[in-house]
Write a structure and sequence with these properties.
The protein is of the alpha/beta class. It has 9 helices and 17 strands. The strands form 3 sheets. It has a 6-stranded antiparallel beta sheet with strand order 4-3-6-1-2-5. Strands 12, 13, 14, 15, 16 and 17 form a 6-stranded mixed beta sheet that branches. The radius of gyration is 23 Å and the shape is globular. It binds flavin-adenine dinucleotide. Flavin-adenine dinucleotide binds next to strand 4, strand 5 and helix 3.
Length: about 350
């Protein structure tokens, strides 16, 4: 037998597995250092910075296996709240390759939300979170277009914050206009940093729209603030209404408008009736109306459902369909062939459904 390096490594791994049974070598590594296990990507919250009254930036040191993101991408964060693991999606607000090796997310607490409230109000330095990603297509091409418009509101500034530093430090920076809306100057996430960037760079123009005093931004305001807005490449992120209006009014070429949505409007069909849903692996069965996402149906029935963004972006919730039909709540389209992977967070039952979960 020839003893080669791959053979030695395989044998060592095998011996490690045998010695650590019934646990895995990763479980022991996790005891020695929480960021070491290779089987599961983790991060440690190092610091927290309040940004506004309801938004906090978490500085996270990613563990082994994290690959650098492109500015504008998001990651999934898994946190345990009251003994249950929840996954949500957050844009990375830091540029890639920070000198300290950390990444940041900036979370606006939803007073009725499970994860954002937990991250923003109850997380302390040292907390270990689960990570997945990075992913997403809301990124600037290389080289960047010569004229850009960022249109953001509220926490929609987070992916753009990750982009700005890099863009403005290019040898020949593009011409950047940022129009950002928030209720008051104090509610502007990264307000001071944005104002400093705009004051320092002749290539960046910042317009803050404080909606509590002057109302929401309309298409006519856009033309006033940025007369050549239709000739720019646009990156927009903010509330659904703002993005829907922009998409409806956008007169430029479709490929010049890039939109990132943090929430999706689901459009349940009128008179949809639903049916019995059977989860074939767990053997659970329950009734579902035709408007509730199968993800919620399963969770309410006590099935451990995989989940992520809960709005059809990240595909973490997919499950194989064994039989039946489902409706895509975003488009109204009814579909289903046995074996299809169903996005349970945006699909509802149309008649009896069997899912392999
Ligand atoms: C690509 C992407 C990037 C994102 N980036 C950011 C970011 O940078 N910063 C940021 O703050 N957020 C971001 N988000 C949003 C984030 O993922 C979460 O959706 C947000 O933080 C709310 O999560 P939560 O757990 O607090 O709320 P959830 O618990 O999910 O609840 C959200 C809302 O829905 C309501 N709700 C929950 N369940 C039900 C129900 N059964 N019936 C009726 N109402 C219900 C709640 O009352 C609450 O108001 C991003 C989302 C995406 C998809």
């Amino acid at each position: 037998m020839t003893v080669t390096l791959p053979w030695i490594l395989r044998s060592l791994a095998e011996a490690g597995r045998w010695l650590s049974t019934p646990l895995s070598p990763d479980d022991y590594l996790g005891l020695l250092h929480p960021l070491w296990p290779a089987g599961e990507l983790r991060g440690r919250v190092e610091r927290l910075h309040p940004e506004t009254a309801d938004a906090v930036t978490l500085v996270i040191r990613p563990g082994r296996g994290w690959r650098p993101h492109r500015p504008g991408q998001w990651a999934r964060i898994g946190v345990d709240v009251h003994g249950r693991r929840h996954w949500r999606t957050y844009s990375l607000s830091s540029p890639p390759h920070r000198p300290d090796g950390c990444i940041t997310i900036t979370v606006k607490a939803d007073p009725d939300g499970i994860v954002s409230r937990h991250l923003a109000r109850h997380t302390v330095p040292g907390t270990i979170v689960r990570l997945a990603g990075p992913d997403g297509t809301f990124v600037i091409p290389e080289p960047p277009p010569p004229r850009l418009l960022f249109l953001t509101a509220g926490s929609g500034i987070t992916p753009v914050m990750a982009m700005l530093g890099g863009l403005l430090s290019d040898e020949i920076p593009p011409d950047v206009v940022l129009i950002h809306s928030a209720p008051t100057p104090q509610d502007v996430i990264f307000g001071d940093r944005l104002r400093r960037l705009a004051a320092r760079s002749p290539y960046m123009e910042l317009h803050e729209r404080h909606t509590r005093s002057v109302g929401r931004l309309g298409p006519a305001d856009l033309a006033d603030l940025c007369p050549d807005w239709t000739g720019r490449a646009v990156w927009a992120c903010g509330p659904t209404g703002m993005l829907d209006d922009l998409a409806a009014e956008w007169p430029g070429p479709a490929q010049n408008l890039h939109v990132e949505r943090f929430t999706e409007t689901l459009r349940p069909a009128d008179g949809a009736t639903g049916g019995r849903v059977r989860f074939t692996t767990t053997g659970r069965e329950t009734g579902a109306d035709g408007t509730t996402p199968l993800l919620n149906v399963g969770e309410d029935a006590g099935v451990l459902m995989p989940s992520g963004c809960r709005m059809g972006v990240c595909h973490s919730c997919v499950a194989p369909l064994r039989s039946g039909l489902v409706r895509d709540l975003r488009t109204g389209l009814v579909h289903g062939e046995p074996g299809d992977l169903i996005q349970t967070c945006v699909s509802a039952a149309v008649g009896p459904v069997e899912l392999e979960l």
